[in-house]
Amino acid sequence: MYRLDERIDRKKKKKLKRLIMLSIFIVLGLLSYFIYKINHVKTTIHQSSGTVSVVVSPDSQTNTYDEGDFTIAIPKSWQPVKVPSSLYKIYEWKTTIGGSQILDIYQDTIPQSFPVNRELALQPDGGRVLTIGLVSDNCANFTKTTGASTLAIPAKWQGVNFLCDEANYERDVIGTGSDSGINSIALTGDISGTHKFFFVYNNYSISTDFTLFYQILGSFYLK
């Protein structure tokens, strides 16, 4: 039986179904596309190039001092000190801030009764000095009191005789010596001839690293 408008409704339903199916396919296609893009994104990491910074120790840069008979390299962070005239010929340098480190060099006229807390044994190499081993421990730890004055007790380190300042064991005064005698080493330069030297390093800083003292001694050269 034919009913009015029935064929028209069927056509509309078919078109509507087609539109719905097409919309579904479009939505599914878009979802698939976005899922594919998300899974295939290439992540590029931009990392800045590394830089190397060189930290220069203030003691690594030196000034070379020419004192007539000898030359020596002293850290730029130190300064020379004018020593008042005395019986001894002394050259002195110290740190500019706080004076926590001081180097004294006695030439020819050597104080034989000068006591120290630590000893560094030296041996001559022409106009240069060579160290024998390392700086000793505080001599109060290995020197026996003789019952006499504790200000200058005879002691020995690496076969070198010196005087131990046991009365002031808390200080860090390092002296040098050799088989030339107490507080003395004899060096012979090509120009200056033979001279005796006594190196005294006062370290009032917290550090007990004496590497800097070794470096300074290594730079010493008797002309």
Principal-axis shape equals rod-shaped
Straight-line N-to-C gap = 135 Å
Instruction: Provide the residue-averaged pLDDT.
Output: 83
Radius of gyration: 42 Å
Estimate the strand proportion.
Answer: 25-35%
Taking pLDDT < 50 over at least 5 consecutive residues as the criterion, the unreliable ranges are 1-6, 50-56
Helix content: 10-25%
Tally of DSSP helical segments:
2
Helix and strand sequence: HEEEEEEEEEEEEHE
Characterize the largest beta sheet: strand count, sense, and whether it forms a barrel: 8 strands, mixed
> In terms of structural class, how would the helical and strand content be classed?
alpha+beta
Total beta strand runs: 13
Defining key terms:
single chain, 223 residues, alpha+beta, 8-stranded mixed beta sheet, 3-stranded antiparallel beta sheet, 2 helices, 19% helix, rod-shaped, disordered N terminus
